[in-house]
Amino acid sequence: MKMITTPQLKKIHTLLGELGIKDRKPEIVYSFTHGRTESSRDMTLMEAKALIEYLMGSQERTTVIRRIWHLAYEMGIIVPGDQDEKAMNAAKLDAFCEQRGTVKKSLSCQSLKEVKRTSKQFEAMFAKHEQRKEDIEILESLKKSLAQCVTTENYEEAARIKVEIELQNELLAPKRKRAVKAV
């Protein structure tokens, strides 16, 4: 029976600290050793591995990270490709998270709690992205209707559609430009 390694011991203590549950370590260790011990130093290699996986929330964290990757792909932040492209995509996401993310850490260094916050940010970004796509589709439809009204010489309807197009363009304008116009 192999015993816990020093790196595993350090990892457990680090994770407990990050999650803010260091004071609950004895009872957590007790449950993972099935009542054999409360000391992390007396854990077996496999018990330590199970505890580390639990603390890292490996399955849930992986699922949330996959969701972030999917949303980033859908928004065009990252693109499909081979291993080199995947490495570039990971670097793009890490850089984005460090510069503009809610956590200001690379995605690969975030805890489960932080990854969940980042996921919420990406979901909000995706919702805005989808709304913008919808607004662009409405604008294109209005432009087609305007062209048809001009072709059929229905100028009253064309004037009404032109006003709608201007309103739609205002919605699509970046917020900074809208604020400048309002002044």
Distance between the termini: 74 Å
Low-confidence stretches: none
**What Rg, in angstroms, do the CA atoms define?**
26 Å
What about the largest sheet?
none
- What is the count of distinct domains? 2
Helix content: over 70%
SSE string, helices as H and strands as E: HHHHHHHH
User: Helical element count?
Assistant: 8
Total beta-strand segments:
0
Our estimate of the beta-strand percent is under 5%
3D structure, described in words:
- With 183 residues, the chain is an all-alpha fold.
- The protein has 2 domains: 6-56, no CATH class; 63-182, no CATH class.
- The chain is 74% helix and 0% strand.
- Helix 1 (6-19) runs parallel beside helix 3, helix 4 (58-75) runs parallel beside helix 6 and helix 6 (112-151) runs antiparallel to helix 7.
- The longest helix has 40 residues, at 112-151.
- It is rod-shaped, with a radius of gyration of 26 Å.
- The model has no long low-confidence stretch (mean pLDDT 89).
Comma- or semicolon-separated keywords:
single chain; 183 residues; mainly alpha; 2 domains; 74% helix; rod-shaped
Give the helices and strands, then pairings.
Elements: H1 6-19, H2 25-32, H3 45-56, H4 58-75, H5 83-100, H6 112-151, H7 155-172, H8 175-182
Helix pairs in contact: 1-3, 4-6, 6-7
Summary of the model, kept short:
The chain has helices at 6-19, 25-32, 45-56, 58-75, 83-100, 112-151, 155-172, 175-182. It is an all-alpha fold.
